[in-house]
Amino acid sequence: MILYPAIDLKDGHAVRLLRGEMEKATVFNEDPAAQARDFVAAGCEWLHLVDLNGAFAGAPVNAAAVEAILSETQVPAQLGGGIRDMRTIETWLEKGLARVILGTVAVETPALVREAARAFPGQVAVGIDARGGKVATRGWAEETDVDATELARSFEDAGVSAIIYTDINRDGAMQGPNIDATAALARAVSVPVIASGGVSSLEDLVALRDCGAALDGAISGRALYDGALDLKKALAALRD
Q1: In the CATH scheme, what is the homologous superfamily, with its name and number, of domain 2-239?
Q2: 8 part of the active site
């Protein structure tokens, strides 16, 4: 199971939100590229990037920070937030991203997800962010009646590389991931699932790894910044 250190970008800084609320942002590093270098030095195999401003704006906002990270690190990176048309997808992949994450458009324009997955095999993931099992879009600001598992199932034949499932109520709260919901979604689909939201300790990672569903990875942010989770030790434990 891959551990993805998260770098959430707001106003050019690396921050963490509490349950997706922009007004509850804590700045952890004013230099996101330096943060990325620290994660890579600790041995991470991937980076997970989110353009928080872009998620609300519907277009890239923190492009300079993302480009700096890509130029200063050698591990693959995936990015979500504000990626809502084919040209933006193409641009980011041309700039060196390994994978784009499509969230809002997975609900609003699912045909775009299918088109992108066909055009860029292995480089398109679907981000499913949910509260109480229902998907939220546009930076988690808009609630929908779309069931998270049904949305995941709708992309079974689309050729997407992964589904990133975030329990919004756990995100940044340091209260542990929603293991039951994540495992249930992973068992419902054949697409690789990456868990996100609430991973705050080594015990959380081990519980996800051993949850009975074949999870492809887990994302952690605040716990790494707060020191509750040691990245080197976590990576070693997952390798063992």
Answers
A1: Aldolase class I (3.20.20.70)
A2: yes
